[in-house]
Structures are given as structure tokens and as C-alpha cells.
Amino acid sequence: MTNYVFKAPVVKKVQKFLLGDFIQENDAFHIARATIHSRGDLSMHSHDYAEIFWVEKGKGFHLVNNQKVVLQPGHLVMIRPDDRHTFTSDKHGLTIMNLAFSTDTLTHLKARYFPDSKSYFWTNDQLPFQKLLDLNTINQISKRAEGYWKCQKSNLYVDSLLLSIFRFISIYDKVKVDNQQIPSWLNKALQEFTSPELFKAGQNGFADLCEKNIDHVNRTIKRVFNKTLTELITELRMNYAAQQLSITNTPIKLICMDCGLTNLAHFYTIFKETYHQPPSVYRKATQTIV
Fold first, then answer.
1. Pick from 60, 128, 217, 281: CA 20 to 30 A from residue 3's CA?
2. pLDDT digits (tens, 9 = 90+) for 194-218
3. In whole angstroms, how far apart are CA 115 and each of 104, 106, 242?
4. Is the separation of the CB atoms in 225 and 177 below 8 Å?
5. Same domain, yes or no, for 137 and 234?
């Protein structure tokens, strides 16, 4: 989906928000959820900290660095300290969650995990990094973030939350191909094929989302992805399984069933082929807190 960008009026007066104004002493981060109803709800500002925000509901615009960018549910944006931005919304409001954290944490992430990255917070582009995720992924990120509201706001937890967000993006990208040849009906099905009900319906469920017959869907997937419909559905199922293992305590047998598989041994085999480790080991490696 295209992210439309318009030239915005240049705004000269820019506030600078300070992390210390939002957190308690010894806290390392701040999480909030807000519904923005007009541009007057939040002034144009930069920061002395980094920030991630994602859109849960509503539509509007992100006014950032003298550009006007469309926002809709599913958008996730990584704000650099020097970015100047604010928001405006339609009449129904724009609901976002955001995570603010220190530049020291940003430096640590860069050195330890992204030393050569020119993306995410470290892009040199005029606009900050932005990605449109499916709503299931956004809901999972929100649920994960909500779990940190009442915990100690320490460096351990902000690192854990940030890494989980990067992992959600990585898992999402694993099964999404940026290819102009993908028909809109297929892209729509890929975005929506994320629930246990559809996984259990298998190929027929996917074809129903496409509103095409299975043979046509299979031929298109073979042309675009060089794989069969069965192989694609397996990837989407394992993507879902990996998310559930990372962020929930749901028993592995139930995750297997939610993926539309009835043979637990077969589920273990497929998951290990995909992620090179058994589900139980993957869960221990990816769940920092429970």
C-alpha cells in the first residue's frame, strides 16, 4: 500500500520535549496511549530522546520534517531525536501508542544489534522510518507494550520491549515480499490470513479471502513467490506460531491446533525446519519476561 506524502507548510516554532519531563527518577522509558483529535492536541516538537509510535485506530496525518504523511491503523514509525513532528486527525480521532526512551539506549542498540544499519532509527532519509504492518501484528505489539506499564521502567525492560518490536517487524517481513507484481487481491489475503479460524480452513480459507478459485491462486503464488499455496500457508502458520511462542504462555499443543495442524509431531518438524530449533527452545530464547 502506498504511503502518500504531501508537502506541509514550514513551521518555525518548534518545542523540544525532554524525557525527564515524562518519567520518574531512575526510569529508563515512558509508554503512553493517546487519542489525538486535532493538531492543537499536540504542538510541533523535537526531542532529547528517541520514540516509536504505532497507530491502533483512526486516520490522520503525520506532520514531520516539513512533510505531511498519511497515517492509518497499522503504521509504525521510529522517530529520531531531531525529527520535528506533530499529528492531525479526521473527526473520529487518531489513537496511537508510543514508547519514548533515551539516546543512550539508542546508542546501545546500534552498537550491539545494528552496527551497520542505515534503516530504522539510523536512516539518513528526510522522513523517519515508517512501516505499515497488519492489524494482528499491531495488536500483538500493543498487548506486549501494555505488559510493561506496571513493571519497573528499567533498562532491562526497555531493551526487552524494543527487541520484541524489532522481532515483530522481522517476522512480518519474512513472509511479505515487496513486489509490484503482487495483485491487490493477493496482498489483501496475505494481510488478513492471520487467525486460527482461517488457518484451520487452510487452502480453501485463503482462496475465499482472495475471492478466486484455488487453481488461479496457486498459479499466481507460484509466479510471484516461486512457491506453492501449501508452502505459503505453512510459512504463514509458522509466522503465527512464532509470534504466539514469543508473547504468550499458550501451550504448544494449542498453538499447533490454532495453526490448523492436528499432528503435534508434524508441527514440531515443520517449526524446526523453519526456525532451526524446536518450539520449546524458541520460546525460551525469545521470551525475556513471562
1. 217
2. 889 999 999 999 999 999 999 999 9
3. 15, 11, 26
4. yes
5. no
